[in-house]
Write a structure and sequence with these properties.
Layout lengths: L23 E6 L2 E6 L10 H15 L6 E5 L4 E3 L19 H5 L2 H5 L5 E5 L2 E3 L1 H8 L2 E5 L3 E3 L10 H11 L1 H10 L2 E3 H7 L4 E3 L4 H13 L3 H12 L7 H8 L2 H11 L18
Parallel strand pairs: 2-3, 3-5, 4-6, 5-7, 6-8, 7-10
Antiparallel strand pairs: 1-2, 8-9
Helix pairs in contact: 5-6
């Protein structure tokens, strides 16, 4: 039985089907679990509690015998746009912000999940959302979904992207995405291998659930061995350098520029644009 979300004024850590935040809904559809990101007033921007809740969901499904697979999706025209750069702590049940680098985020947990994880990318997908999608076993995207990795524009050296993306889509395409922060559409994402299926938004969740069912029909031990071998193709990530980057001055300026809807101070005056990069 799914726990009821407590009032937002009384946040508490995850437990059972409660993911530790009212902005993640955990639903059981038979043996398939569906987690819906629903923080519409912030366009689904992820708080630390939400990132931790996503990680917990993967682990919760992994240790729950009656659950066979997990599907992530979003709401309206947004899947997951990345972290909340405004620092809003409305759902905080602990000081998770300082653990955000690796102890809270779900990326390695998704990649190494013992049970299938599928992303139903219903719309805007960038930052941490793109990592969740590309590290899922299968990513199903809606025809109007868009994809972006804007970290360098925020002054963040994301070594996870730098390690994983070239393996997935090729070095030249990874350079183009990571160094320019460009947005690509669903057709391009399919052509490049960021996702493997594109359908109408109205059926993207249904298609992802069907894929999850297909994955769950495989032998569990065989699934884990094959997944482990696939994961060997990804190179190791330089976490020390990323930690240094996150603790440096550039992300601070990048965050301020984002909140103030301006170009960061390192951008030459003649290259600055109106609004956020």
């Amino acid at each position: 039985m799914t726990d009821q979300a407590p009032p937002s004024t009384a946040p508490r850590p995850p437990g059972g089907d409660w993911l530790g935040t009212p902005f993640l809904r955990f639903e059981r559809r038979g043996s398939i679990a569906v987690v819906t990101v629903d923080r519409r007033h912030r366009r689904n921007a992820m708080t630390p509690a939400m990132y931790y809740g996503a990680r917990y969901a993967v682990e919760h499904v992994g240790r729950t015998a009656e659950l066979a697979a997990l599907v992530f999706t979003g709401t309206d025209d947004v899947f997951i746009p990345g972290g909340d750069l405004g620092g809003d702590k409305e759902d905080a049940w602990a000081d998770l912000e300082h653990l955000l680098h690796y102890d809270v985020v779900p990326f390695d947990t998704v990649r190494n999940s013992a049970k299938p994880v599928v992303s139903a990318v219903n719309g805007i997908c960038q930052g941490g959302g793109l990592l969740i999608a590309m590290l899922s076993d299968v990513a199903v995207a809606s025809t109007d979904a868009t994809f972006r990795a804007p970290e360098v524009l925020r002054g963040i050296a994301d070594t996870g992207y730098a390690a994983f993306l070239p393996t997935q889509i090729g070095i030249a395409r990874a350079r183009d995405m990571l160094l320019t922060g460009r947005t690509i559409d669903a057709a391009t994402a399919l052509d490049w291998g960021l996702v493997t299926r594109v359908v109408d938004r109205a059926v993207v969740l249904d298609e992802a659930i069907e894929v999850a069912k297909q994955l769950a029909r495989g032998g569990p031990s065989a699934y884990r061995v094959v997944k482990r071998e696939i994961n060997r193709q990804y190179p190791g990530q330089d976490r020390v350098s990323m930690t240094d980057s996150l603790n440096g001055p550039e992300p601070v300026e990048g965050f301020h520029a984002f909140r103030e809807r301006r170009s960061p101070s390192w951008v030459p005056h003649d290259l600055r644009v109106d609004g956020r990069l």
